[in-house]
Structure formats: C-alpha cells, structure tokens
Amino acid sequence: EPTSEPSGPESKPALTALMATRILECCQHFVAGNSLRLKLIVFEVMASCIQFLSVQMAVERRDDEGEHGDPRHGARSAKPHSHTRRSTTSDFLPTIATLWEPFCRRLSEQSDNDAPALVAAMQVMEQLTDCCGDFVARRFHDEAWPHIARYFTRYLADRAAFGASCNRLPN
Length: 171
Known about the structure:
Blueprint: H1 15-27, H2 36-68, H3 88-108, H4 115-167
C-alpha cells in the first residue's frame, strides 16, 4: 500500500544531491551582491552544484535504464520500477526555476566592471544547458540572451569608440 511519504534508500534523493539543491536555493540571495568577488564565488559554487547534480541525474537515468531494460535491446529487468522514488531531477528543476529570475536580473544589471562575473555567469549557464538543456532552452532564448546580447553590443560599441579615439591621436 503506497504511503504519502516515501521511505527507504531508493525513495529519496541522495543526501548530497539534496544538499547541493539547497545550496543552489541559497545562492539566489547572493547573486545580486554588489561585490565582484562575492559574485564570482557564488557563480563558482552554483556551477559546482549544477555539475554535481548533472552527474547524479545521469546516474539515475542509467539506473532507470537498468530497471526498465535497455529499449535498444528489448531486455527487461526483473526488478520492478519504484513509482514512489523521488529523483534528483524532480528536486532540481524547481530549484532552477526559482533561481532563474534572480540570475537573469543579475545578467540585466551587468556593468563594464562586471565582465568577469558575466564570464562566470556564462559558465553557470553552460552547466545548466549540459544537464537540463531542454528545460532552459526557451528561457535562455527569451530571458537571458537579450541581456547578454545587449551587454556585448554595448561592449563592442565602446571598444569601437575607443579604437576610433586612438586612431585620432597624433603620432
């Protein structure tokens, strides 16, 4: 008889995955910090947590294929699939949804002094697309890319203006 609260070792995500998810949830409060050093640390922590959770999700997918059999070979395992087992993915995607708005807000507030933070943010984005690309693809296109494109457009315009002013200097 199913219970409302799953129990047993396979019913909950690994404690470390749960901790990584909670760390990511806390990061949303520090993404908007004014200190470049703080932003760099937060983005590094985020990238590490996402990379770890990506590995956890890959292990779960591999285990699920083992439970259900490999569809390419038509093999089936005798072990029944537990429908009460919570996955890292089910805990991770809502966390990404929660982090998304502060993350995009931070991208929209980039200044020229924040170039290293933008690079770190893009590394976080790379980790996100590696582990849950389908989930973030539309969000990236609609919400993150316009801020990134605006930053680079402004950066290139500033570089062109600087280059033009250097060309006018007397020899």
